[in-house]
Amino acid sequence: MPLNHVALTVGDRERSAAFYAEHFGLTERVHDDPHLLILGTPDGSLLALSEGEVPRELPRGRNALLTFAMAGHHARVVMNGNVLGEHYGIRLPFSFDVPFDCEPTSGTASWRLLLESRDGAHGQSVPVPVAQTATSSPAQTRQALRAATYDAPAETKVQVERGAGTTVRLPLPSWVRLWYTLVVVVAAMCVGAAIIWPEDAATIYGIAIVITIVLCAIPLPALAMTVRRIDADWRGLTLRYQMLRRAKSLPAGDVGAAYAHGALHYELTFSGAVPPWTIVTLRSRAEAEWVAYELRLPQRS
Questions:
Q1: pTM for the complete prediction?
Q2: 3-class DSSP state for residue 14?
Q3: Do 293 and 226 meet the contact criterion of CB atoms below 8 Å apart?
Q4: Which residue of 87, 142, 147, 277 is 20 to 30 Å from 115, comparing CA positions?
């Protein structure tokens, strides 16, 4: 499917024309005047370039808007693997919001725009250069979108204590109680078996002791990585774990909330990352954003 009726605003029209001529074969100048340059190929592809002011970064706290002058009939628009939407209509302008999550992940990457037919059999891929700076990264945009304050969710079990600093006490993960309930059930079954078969009681009790010890030990590595308390003040953060570990100190920095896809829960990030061998589990996005907000406050004072 030829690329048709796509219009771009560029900072340097001649430089952009040379780029598309070299990489996409758009060597024919179908139309050229001081306001508009239309490039073409023998197969009928058309690209319109107009010179204007191009922002060097995406506006913080807002999405970008990708606008097309028109399409022949139907267009499905994909940006960096994210489907922005579909358009039906002959030679009508249309546009889509580009979420900030579509921003390039480095300063040298580009957006990749894909226009394809409805059945996916035909398409045209176009790189869209975009500059990324420290203030236009997805992480910075998320910070710009934060609310001024966050309130505690109604059903949270997290406790926040404010004083000279802030202390956040996290509840024991629910899976721990379920696991040790299972251990008790298994031990009770072994006792029942020893009562039913008294002649094998010694063997059954020995097996029960081994199974109980093993089952009790299995969660210990996870508990050693699970944070039970976080202290925050102007100097930074101190993470205190459930057991078997010394506290970890972190310098003052941003605290954010992120969804842990593999674990299917929300967790905290510290200066954009999760410390190694550390688990901070929150039940919901609202709870995670509230806890992150409470930990950021004392670091500002």
A1: 0.55
A2: helix
A3: no
A4: 142
